[in-house]
Design a protein that fits this description.
The complex is a heterodimer of chains A (about 120) and B (about 425). With about 120 residues, chain A is α+β, with helices and mostly antiparallel strands. Chain A has helices at about 15-20, 70-80, 110; strands at about 1-10, 30-35, 40-45, 50-55, 55-65, 90-95. In chain A, helix 1 runs antiparallel to helix 2 (about 70-80). In chain B, helix 6 runs parallel beside helix 13. The chains are: A alpha+beta (about 120), B mainly alpha (about 425). Strand 4 of chain A pairs antiparallel with strand 1 of chain B.
Chain lengths: ~120, ~425
């Protein structure tokens, strides 16, 4: 069982959700984050104050999946989030020590596999 | 020639300021309806209408609308405010200059209204050019027909405060603009929700407030027709609100806030052509009945491929048309001292209202369609897909509506004198 973390452009978040849905990856959480990934700074001006925006808004996906779903999840993230410009984001895959489904107490593989309707 | 009346002049000065307030109010209303990344751009389109509209109106727009000319368009007698002085304007007791300013605020709000069709994707610079040309080629022409000595006014069409130029003019132009500019890239694929319903409500409230000057000032005096229109501007939208609540409740079992804000606009639009011509009771009937067609179009339009984004057609075009026709049925000489409608014995009046309801939409739609098609060949009208995704605020204005300042690095202002470059370092 792995945790796939995808950090993507906010405007691509919907495309990622769509791609994940198509790949039948169902359980996920997202959060709004700010970060910097080497893209060019955006310059904004408010009256006399000019600033470089060093941090860009990003959306962070956290998706816990069983091993066979790792590649499809990565593919879906890339497919949904890629524009080809610097700043498209990153994907991190990290091992998970333990996963527990709160409702049933199921562990690991059982906990990350969606239940049927 | 009539004398200046200071009471009338005082009211018209106030009314002019009230109408000008409607444009920033519309900016707030529209800004709340779009996504947060387009807040400033949407508001700026309304401010652009003030900037561009006031200038074009002064240079030539006012003359094309209100100079004699022919039935279709005025001449250039008042261009550059030639002969627009402090003397009373013909048929009124207020200075001609004030009359020009009051009418100018109408041109401004109408240009701003059209922006609702193209927000979130039209390039700001292209909108500026469009606004300048549209205010002269479409608004001034329609204003001439209905307010100036144009063919509709000459034949007795009743349009108290702008059902023809402002409401049908903006509504049907908005439809044409949406068709030429095209839908937003996410339209029909993602839910595109209003980002701040409180802005929408506050904007609608301020628009209603301003509308008392818009309708109440269109009698150009503090006299009977102004008082009647002012009161009807209270009653008609209230009736629309009540019916809108009911329609919302029947459709979804819930009364919505964004729906209520829309109802205020629809009610104000309905009474615009009719304000000084209907009895208060008929004004309330208009508000109640007129809610239905606009509601129907608002429900139906998002099911189509036409991304007329902020429903200018439903709220202004359709409601303006309803109001124009309603006047032809229920106008009463006993209240307005001018003309009766069909129900009170004058079928011919209704005929001219029908003609206005056909001619104004036809001209507004066609002229705007052609104007944008021509502009499209000269400059790109829309922003790129990537820019649309980023949001118009950052792309076209270099600002954010909700900047947090996190991660913002101060760039030192250039205080030191420009560095002297050595021409020949050898």
């Amino acid at each position: 069982v792995k945790l796939v973390i995808g950090i993507v452009r906010p405007e691509k978040a919907n495309d990622v959700l769509e791609a994940l849905y198509r790949a039948e990856v169902r359980g996920l959480s997202i959060s709004r984050v700010q970060g910097h990934g080497g893209e060019l700074d955006r310059v904004e001006t408010y009256r006399g104050t000019t600033v470089k925006m060093g941090l860009a808004d990003k959306v962070r996906f956290e998706i816990a999946v069983s091993d066979p779903f790792v590649e499809p999840t990565i593919d879906a993230l890339r497919q949904g989030a890629q524009t080809g410009e610097v700043g498209d984001g990153k994907i991190f895959v990290v091992p998970l020590e333990r996963v527990v489904r709160i409702r049933t107490g199921e562990l690991d593989h059982g906990a990350v596999t969606p239940v049927g309707p | 020639m009539s004398e200046i009346n200071t009471g009338d002049t005082a009211w018209m000065l106030t009314a002019t300021a009230l109408v000008l307030l409607m444009t920033p109010a519309l900016g707030l209303f529209y800004a709340g309806l779009v996504r947060s990344k387009n807040t400033l751009n949407t508001f700026m389109m309304c401010l652009a209408a003030i900037a561009v509209g006031a200038v074009t109106w002064t240079l030539v727009g006012y003359s094309f609308a209100f100079d004699e000319g022919n039935g279709f368009i005025g001449g250039v007698g008042f261009a550059f405010l030639n002969d627009v002085t402090l003397e009373p304007r013909d048929g009124t007791t207020i200075p001609h200059l004030l009359f020009m300013a009051f009418q100018g605020t109408f041109c401004i709000i109408t240009v701003a209204l059209v922006s609702g069709a193209v927000v979130e994707r039209m390039r700001f610079s292209a909108f500026l050019v469009f606004a300048a040309l549209w205010s002269v080629l479409v608004y001034a022409v329609l204003a001439h027909w209905a307010f100036g000595p144009g063919w509709l006014l000459d034949n007795g069409t009743l349009d108290f405060a702008g059902g023809v130029p402002v409401e049908m003019g903006s509504g049907f132009s908005a439809l044409a603009a949406a068709l030429v500019v095209g839908a937003r890239k996410d339209y029909g694929r993602q839910a595109l929700l209003p980002h701040n319903a409180v802005y929408v409500l506050l904007g609608a409230g301020l628009l209603w407030f301003g509308w008392f000057g818009f309708n109440g000032g269109s009698g150009f005096s503090a006299g009977n027709s102004g008082v009647l229109a002012f009161t009807n501007t209270l009653l008609c939208p209230a009736a629309t609100l009540v019916v809108w609540f009911a329609l919302d409740a029947v459709r979804d079992r819930q009364v919505t806030a964004v729906g209520a804000a829309t109802a205020i606009i629809v009610g104000c639009v309905l009474i615009t052509p009719a304000g000084g011509f209907l009895s208060p009771s008929w004004a309330m009937a208009l508000g109640a009945l007129g809610a239905v067609p606009s509601y129907a179009v608002i429900v139906w339009r998002p099911r189509t491929k036409v991304d007329e984004t902020l429903d200018v057609l439903a709220a202004h075009g359709v409601a303006g048309l309803t109001g124009i026709l309603f006047v032809g049925l229920f106008a009463q000489t006993s209240w307005n001292g001018v003309s009766d409608g069909l129900v009170y014995g004058d079928a011919g009046q209704f005929g001219w209202q029908v003609l206005a309801a056909l001619a104004a939409p036809a001209y507004a739609f066609t002229a705007t369609f052609v104007l944008l098609k021509v502009l499209e060949r000269l400059m790109p009208l829309r922003t790129s897909e990537r820019e649309e995704a980023l949001g118009m605020d950052i792309v076209h204005h270099g600002e954010e509506a909700y900047a947090t300042g996190e991660g913002a690095i101060l760039v030192e202002p250039e205080t030191s004198p420009p560095r002297r470059t050595v021409a020949n370092p050898t």
